[in-house]
Design brief:
Layout: E1 23-30, E2 36-40, E3 45-59, E4 62-67, E5 71-74, E6 80-84, E7 90-97, H1 109-118, E8 127-128, H2 135-151, H3 156-174, H4 191-200, H5 207-214, H6 218-229, H7 233-251, H8 256-262, H9 268-279, H10 283-289
Antiparallel strand pairs: 1-7, 2-6, 3-4, 3-5, 3-6, 3-7, 5-8
Length: 290
């Protein structure tokens, strides 16, 4: 089982990569490894490849029901989260790579063709499923890279990079329509808020503080946050804290009082009530029954 520290929840700061190529994969299962992966963002390109079962992805404020075979494509900075669908489990693979591995001073292909993709100026689907243009090539090259990276023999990195080039070539060829910036939801203003919750969720946090960080009035911040993510900021903050508590209940032997305080609740009775409301179990029952 993955440790809580193996998957940073928001704006992951440590390197995902090893060896000499900025490419790596992480198999995960919801809810075995994590009850959920709260909204987060990072600077790497990511594919989320659903292997078994079904679940929910939230990408840039839009909810997607996904199932085995679906593949999500996330560019740097996309805010996204992974959640359980009802009582189902979902096995998936996180595939991450650094876009700069394609940059070269010897040609302009990266600047001309790939950079618009990675800067979110081209209209590309967030989720590819059977029948969506580009799905078959994405699946083919990711499957090939899975096989290569499982052995890591010889100059395996060259094959990984070559397959990514072919995958991206197909996407660039299929998707050329530019996004109308004036119609885009200005979700970037909420990134500092999402990051603040990750770094300081155990500390007292007010709507007024978050509105200041986003550069909004309190009323506009509350309205914009709920319009974007479908829940109020307070609900999001409490759900985040409870998700962290659920991870700690399973990955540590800390007592429940310490865990409640560690994730930002200063009243144990309130923590117990909120936890049972979210999980239909007390913290003690959750620890014993998982």
């Amino acid at each position: 089982m993955l440790n809580i520290n193996d998957y940073q929840a928001i704006h992951e700061r440590t390197s995902h990569f090893d060896y000499n190529i900025p490419y790596n994969t992480y198999p995960c299962t919801i809810p075995l490894d994590f009850e959920s992966v709260p909204l987060h963002w990072h600077e790497d390109v990511e594919f989320i490849y659903i292997k078994k079962g079904r679940g929910i992805l939230v990408i840039e404020g839009v909810e997607y029901n996904v199932s085995a075979g679906d593949i999500a494509f996330l560019i740097p900075g996309n805010i996204h989260g992974i959640f359980q669908y009802e009582d189902d489990s979902m096995e998936y693979e996180n595939i991450l790579f650094d876009e700069k591995m394609f940059s070269s001073s010897l040609d302009e292909f990266y600047d001309s063709f790939l950079l618009p993709f990675f800067q979110n100026t081209v209209d590309v689907p967030h989720v590819f499923s059977q029948g969506v243009p580009g799905y078959e090539s994405i699946k083919r090259y990711l499957d090939a890279n899975d096989n290569i990276s499982s052995h890591r023999e010889g100059a395996w990195g060259l094959a990984i990079k070559g397959n990514l080039y072919l995958l991206l070539f197909n996407l660039v060829t299929l998707y050329e329509e530019k996004i109308d910036a004036s119609s885009k939801k200005n979700i970037d203003k909420l990134k500092p808020v999402i990051k603040h919750v990750e770094l300081h969720y155990s500390e007292p946090t007010t709507v007024a503080d978050m509105a200041d960080i986003a550069g909004f009035s309190e009323s506009h911040f509350m309205r914009f946050f709920k319009e974007t993510f479908g829940v109020s900021f307070i609900t999001y903050l409490n759900d985040y804290r409870l998700s962290m508590a659920a991870r700690l209940l399973l990955s540590t032997e800390e007592n429940i009082l310490d865990i409640s305080q560690e994730v930002g609740f200063d009243n144990l009775s309130h923590f117990n009530r909120q936890f049972k409301k979210k999980y239909n179990k007390t913290p003690k029952e959750y620890r014993l029954n998982q």
